[in-house]
Amino acid sequence: MPVSRALIVLLASTGLSAQQPVVPQPGEPSSAQQNVNAPSGAAGKAPPGAAGETPGAAGSGESSQPAAASVSLDLNSALQRARDYNQQFLAAGIAVQLAHEDRLQAKAAFYPTLNWFNQYIYTQGDHTPSGIFVANDGVHVYNEQAAVHAELFSMTQRAAYRRAVAAEAAARARQEIATRGLAATVIQSWYGLIAARRHLVNARESLTEGQRFLDITQKLEAGGEAAHADVIKAQLLVMQQQRDVTDAQVNVEKAQLALGVIVFPDPLQQFMVNEELGENAPLPSLNEVRAEAIASSPDVHAAKASVEEARYGVSSARGAYYPSLVLDYWYGIDANVFGVRGPRDRQNLGSVAQGTVTVPVWNWGITRSKVRQAELEQKQAQTELTWAQRQLAANIDGFYLEAQAARNQIDSLRASADLSAQSLRLTILRYQAGEATALEVSDAETTLTQARNAYDDGLARYATALANLETLTGKL
Predict the structure, then answer these.
(1) Which of 189, 303, 340, 373 is the right S-S partner for 385, CB 3.0 to 4.6 Å?
(2) pLDDT at 334
């Protein structure tokens, strides 16, 4: 091997470089960060945001707004914050409260009501005791009465109460559905942000490696052992890698905003995230997942409550066929003189009771139509229950297969990243020995970047699949 080429190999192996051919864009690092979670072939990575890096500040531009205090988040705290600010989740909570009030009102209808009735009637006089309007009791009529009203028997009212109970249960189940739907959104945004950060680290490492290769080609060209075309190829590679870093920074910013919109009232709030992906997290058995998911599924619970609500809707509609019994009781004054006693020491204070039985006879088929309508609603609710059960079974198997596939691929992806790193190292050595071309080195660097990104995506995929299973089983 010539002396100049041997010297270049020695400099490259020690990482020394006096060449800075292309100045990185503002905000780009000159060297890669460290990452203990990376495979051996991708060693030297550190997630953006770690070691004091401010999340959301990866871009080269500066924000005109004052920086807010950074908040540290883990997945559970992000989920809790999302529940505090998400409009759909808050609306589902209000729907539960409304259903609860409906149930209280339906229950209260069983109990007697008490009202105080106050009235004064003046009738134009015509020198007769009743005045001009003979239907009135006199020129002056005073009413001061306590009225008690109770519906003692009503099939419709009893069914309405049961229906309100079922409606409240359905509203609570829909609130849980909203909770899990929100959790799924947060999980996707959470691991999307982590993957974007790791892609940024990979892009920065690739840029550092590309600059090192450019330095090697320039030294070899200066020694007359490499063509200028190799230098141009290395320069083009570095320029592309710089653009990749910029794109990765933009993706981090977008992922940061996507998560910030969900978990903070101010989407520009700065925050740090716990970037552990749980590579070694165990995968529960399918039978365990299936049992827990079926027992805790809010979709099935909501569908069952809707079936129950529809069933009592049928009973409420059929209640219009039956008689109803109402009791009214009044105690007080209904007299021409406002007082306990009237003229000739007449007693004005007294009571009266009234019982009313209403028997439905004919209403042109309205009741029959309402019963048929309620039965159709019950049939529709039963259909939705069957669909919810089938959909749950499909989701269980689908999510589990996704988690299983992601877990099985992690070792392969790690090995690919290690082999790609080894391939790049050997290709550079072969190039320095004159046995490989610059194009081969460029391809090896591109392959390594893709392998690193694929490994990080695989980790994020498995973590997302596990989180989806925990959401499905009600653990998250």
Answers:
(1) 303
(2) 84
